[in-house]
Amino acid sequence: MTMDSLDIAGSAQQEFVTDSNEALEFKLVRCKEDLERDETTFKPEMSHQIFGETETIFGYKELSVKLYYSAARLSPYLGMSYTSKVDPKKAEGVQPDEVLKPVAEKLPQAFFTNLDDFVKALDKDASFRPYGELLHTFGPSLSSDGDGASPRTFEVYLATAETPGLREHHEALQTFLLWYIDAASFIDIDDDRWRFFVCFERYKTAEGETRYAVAGYTTVYEYYAYPCHVRPRISQMLVLPPFQKLGIGAEMLDIVYRHYKNNEKVVDITVEDPSENFTRLRDFVDCRNCAKLSCFQPLKLAQGFSPTMADDAKKELKMSSKQVRRVYEILRLRATNLSDKEEYRNFRLDVKKRLNMPYQKEDSDMKKLLKVLRPEELAVSVTGREQRIETLDRMYNQLEEEYKHVLERLAVL
Questions:
Q1: Is the pLDDT of residue 11 over 60?
Q2: Please, what's the b/e burial string for 297-332 (b: 16 or more CB within 10 A of its CB; e: otherwise)?
Q3: Superfamily grouping for domain 129-334
């Protein structure tokens, strides 16, 4: 029984209620010393997909749930500790929540429950080599610690379900989605249209051995497009917390783009239900790429959106028409002198004209209906003028704020 179905009487039992996000402790372990280092620990962003909407665990004091992975092979260890456990006789018969079982159900069948065995198995990481085809090697755009440490090296590999090693590795890798992507679901790896872009850090041990650590991954599904084309759709992208804020997400997205760029069968590259963070990342990468095209230069942007922009971005970068228009607006905002009232006004009107298109269609549809029906026969509501203006202003202001976040990142290039 979970906290979602409990009404615990009395404050005395509240000391046995734990925030599951605080209780969970993750590590990507490279060596046994990492087990004692606080800096190697990271937390989940969410846990409701395992422990329910309240994200609480009942029945334990000072609960700690440890979910560790070897950095390369991702062999998991799962364990827990607590100082005391609730007595059902003193809690109106309520049993403590299951803790390890709901987590274990999402892990690969082979995982460690004994920490000593997990430590011994770390040696197997020494022989691990990334699977698939090496697509690109790069260094992070930001230093991880800012203290002049040695440059770091990352590699991105492309794999399919048929690639030796991918299936077992992905089984563990995908479990991170549950803690960092809302409404995440595991994919059907047996579908041969899936493509996996996996990022590893290549590093040297103190003894000079070359080793690898998983940094993140992206999955892409290659949809069929009539008559003989492909429409790749980015499904999932995750950069693991120890590797975030290094520019790796932008590099990975750009690598996906470059992989499909020269494929004549590819119509465009789309994204499945993007999060707010991914939308911002995508906008940044697309703006950076489009800014290199002649049709997106400031003088051309000031003349308004043109079919050439859509055609060139689709041809050169495999962008969808909708995304091209969004990128145009972001880059035009950057090229607009906000102190020039007329120039700024022209930009706002250009964006609002696009936002108003659904209302224009509504007007057109209403005119058609009025030709065949009397006003009293209409069972549809029409948005009033004042309401439209208010809605357009709100939508525009929200968009401008989103665009400015992207421009802040572009400004540091």
A1: no
A2: eeebbeeebeeebbebbbeebbbbeebbbbbbbbbb
A3: Gcn5-related N-acetyltransferase (GNAT) (3.40.630.30)
